[in-house]
């Protein structure tokens, strides 16, 4: 379960850069190395073979460890996120910057992305009470509802 959680936490990076597998596992699982012989064996393999795929391998614990407070890293915006809301059923989160993104909180999957085609950055996101609409205003005085 530790390895699966480490892969989930590093999923956004690994989907873009699969050669970062060894650094992601080492950076996240290093504190578990001494107490778990299977993790120790895996990290020793990462250390020995990972250098062929990535020239930088962590020497110290440098990423969130599974079981900590971080559950997911939701990455999909090019710009800073200026607003986010949870749906009433707590199943989804909607975030906004230059686009609206809806995330499934049970899997961290991006379930919907809407690019409204406007100039500027959207701010201050609000969801309608029935969660059917997302509304945000922009830094250049436009309002968008999707």
* Structural class label: alpha+beta
Taking pLDDT < 50 over at least 5 consecutive residues as the criterion, the unreliable ranges are: none
Strand segment tally: 7
Task: Give the overall pLDDT as a whole number.
Answer: 90
H/E topology pattern: HHHHEEEEEEE
The rounded Rg comes to 19 Å
Number of domains: 2
Residue share in helices? 10-25%
What proportion of the residues form beta strands (DSSP E)?
15-25%
Describe the sheet with the most strands.
4 strands, antiparallel
Main sheet: strand order = 1-2-3-4
What does the overall shape look like? Answer: elongated
**Count of DSSP helices?**
4
- Alpha carbon gap, first and last residue: 38 Å
Describe the structure.
By secondary structure, this protein is an alpha+beta fold. It folds into two domains: 2-52, no CATH class; 83-145, no CATH class. It contains four helices and seven strands; from the N terminus they run H-H-H-H-E-E-E-E-E-E-E. The protein has helices at residues 2-9, 11-16, 21-29, 37-49, and strands spanning 83-86, 92-96, 100-104, 110-114, 122-127, 134-138, 143-145. The chain has a four-stranded antiparallel beta sheet, with no helix packed on it. A three-stranded antiparallel beta sheet has the order 5-6-7, with no helix packed on it. A hairpin with a 5-residue loop joins strand 1 and strand 2. The termini are far apart. The model has no long low-confidence stretch (mean pLDDT 90).
